[in-house]
Design a protein that fits this description.
Length: 167
């Protein structure tokens, strides 16, 4: 009986008010709820039903810049995809078409996932994105199609993902 008493003595009920809440450090995430409908004056995306969508512009809608356009305006990407290697130089057109195709597929359903820039660098290409998930998807698609070496480096404090692909 004393062993049962010891087990109960070490049991502490969970206090919901003391649980640590996970924090997301995306400074571009909308603070608070937007008026519905809201339209982004830059890209025309519509905030309706609690999310940004590609819809016709509703009459009398509020205007506010969406998080993706805000990132583009500030030139502060959430994702960096570094593409390097001799294979890239030989198959440059096909790989860049695959990168653009991934953006097109993702952007159909998620207007905030966009490519900001594709820059030619001495060692290869640097693709910057407005979303970490698009950067991951681009890296995985290239790796799936062409193999090679794929690495991810996520920095939760800055809500930033670096993807490195090489072959």
């Amino acid at each position: 009986m004393s062993s049962t008493a010891n087990n109960n003595a070490s049991f502490h009920p969970i206090r919901r008010d003391r649980l640590l809440q996970e924090t997301e450090h995306d400074t571009y995430k909308t603070k608070g709820k937007l008026h519905e409908p809201t339209v982004c004056p830059d890209c025309g995306a519509v905030f309706k039903g609690g999310r940004w969508q590609w819809l016709e512009r509703p009459a009398g809608a509020h205007e506010e810049r969406c998080p993706a356009c805000h990132r583009q305006h500030d030139e502060f990407p959430a994702g960096y995809v570094h593409l390097t290697g001799d294979f890239l130089n030989a198959h440059e057109t096909e790989i860049l078409n695959l990168v653009r195709h991934q953006e097109t597929q993702e952007k159909l359903e998620h207007p905030l996932k966009r490519i900001m820039n594709i820059e030619r660098a001495p060692e290869g290409y640097l693709v910057t994105t407005t979303d970490i998930h698009l950067a991951r998807r681009i890296g995985e698609a290239i790796h799936h199609a062409y193999q090679g070496s794929l690495e991810f480096h996520y920095n939760p404090q800055q809500f930033l993902l670096r993807v490195n692909w090489q072959r």
